[in-house]
Amino acid sequence: MFTSSREIALFYQTVEMVSALQKLAISSTVNLLRANSVGLFEIDLPLVALNKGGASGSRADALKEDTLNAKFATTLMKAISTPIFGAGPCITVSSPPQTEAISSPNTVFLNPATRKDYDSARSLSELSRVVLVNCRCKDPTSIPSSAEYAFFCKQITYNSRIVGYLMKESNLPWKCYDQSGAVLQEWEDLRFKGSVDLRQPVLVSSKNFDNVAIRKRASS
Question: Which of 92, 112, 96 is nearest to 42 (CA)?
Answer without folding.
Answer: 112
